[in-house]
Amino acid sequence: MLKLKTESVFFCLILILLFACIASLSGCKPSPPIPKEGDVVIWSKSWNKYSELIIKAKLGQRREHVIVDSRTDHKFYEPEYERFIGQFPIDYNPKPFPKFTKEEHIAYETAKRNKKWPPYKSIHPIQFNLMLNGVKTKATDRTLHSEQALDDINQVRVEIGGRGVLDDLLTTKERHERFLKSKVNKTWSYDKQSSHEYGMKCYEKNDAAPLRQLWCFGASTYANASGVSFTIIGSNWVFARSYEPIYGGIKVEYRLDRSKLKHWKEVDAAIWRLLDLWNISPI
Fold first, then answer.
1. Within this chain, do residues 61 and 91 fall inside the same structural domain, yes or no?
2. Tens digits of residue pLDDT in 120-143
3. 10-46 burial string, b = 16+ CB within 10 Å, else e?
4. Is 283 a domain residue?
5. Around Cβ 73, how many Cβ atoms within 10 Å?
6. Cα–Cα distance measured from residue 249 to residue 161, given in angstroms and rounded to the nearest whole number
7. Whether the Cβ atoms of residue 21 and residue 28 lie closer than 8 Å to each other
8. Scanning 17, 87, 103, 229, which has its CA 20 to 30 A from the CA of 38?
């Protein structure tokens, strides 16, 4: 009698687990594989829109995970969904893959639209790192927006995304021109020394104590992009952005150390060159 009762309880537990699996679509499904060095991936700039930038690349050096807050780390660390291409020297020159044919492109976009994407929090931007001066270092997954974003002063951390619904359609240069008309005579002053030092047009914010704040614009050497906008705060916080209509509308953001700001033209050229080489969209 005891044996029969034990078997019944065990059977009930199996049924409960089975129903739990069915009720939770993700609970019993295996997680996607974690991308590793040497894998070949195909990633779009946009998850759910027709994309003119479809990156096909062989993954490079992987990042080490850094726990910023142990209380919330498990909620945001999702290596299976991250889209980090790798860390490469500034002169990295990958062999490009063939472009999609028209038929392959249609099939890819159709499959992408029909695919069930992960939850919104699991939609990660496309990222890669560049290293200046032939320096090598371990890469970590610290956020681009952190004060400690860089693992080395020779590192450039790059993030690629589409324009958001709240972004205007101005190019980086047009944003700069609008800035000059609206603010330069009110709260910003032209900084001749910084402009000469960095080879761009820089403006200092008046009364920005305790931290000095600069806003700079540099014209891009890449024919299809207008330029780069830099926010420089304090002694070392440098954040760069480019908003351009190419690739159906793209936003490029990156961080670099202020001591390496003199290399900004080299960095800008390398980013656009790599996107061209990785892009397999026929458009």
1. yes
2. 566 788 999 999 999 999 999 988
3. eeeeeeeeeeeeeeeeeeeeeeeeebeeeeeeebbbb
4. no
5. 12
6. 9
7. yes
8. 103
The whole-angstrom separation of Cα 200 and Cα 177 is 14
Q: What is the largest CA-CA distance in the chain?
A: 93
Strand, coil or helix: what is 96?
Answer: coil
In degrees, to the nearest 5, what angle opens at C-alpha 34 toward C-alphas 33 and 40?
90
Q: Look at residues 38, 33, 68 and name the one whose alpha carbon lies nearest to residue 146.
A: 68
pLDDT, tens digit, 9 for 90 and up, residues 244-258: 989 888 999 999 999
CA proximity to 160, closest of 50, 281, 35, 272: 272
Same domain, 3 and 122: no
Q: How far is CA 105 from CA 44, 51, 108, 117, 273, in A?
A: 12, 10, 5, 19, 22
Q: How far apart, in whole angstroms, are the C-alpha atoms of residue 159 and residue 82?
A: 12
Residue with tokens 């009110």: 186
Domain that holds residue 244: 32-278
Under a CB-based contact definition with an 8 Å cutoff, are residues 172 and 163 in contact?
no
Which residues are CB-contacts of 112 (< 8 A; sequence separation ≥ 6)?
44, 47, 48
Amino acid at 151: D
Residue 28 in tokens:
């019993």
What is the C-alpha separation between 189 and 273, in angstroms, rounded? 34
Task: Record the pTM.
Answer: 0.85
Question: Residue 206 in contact with residue 188, Cβ under 8 Å?
Answer: yes
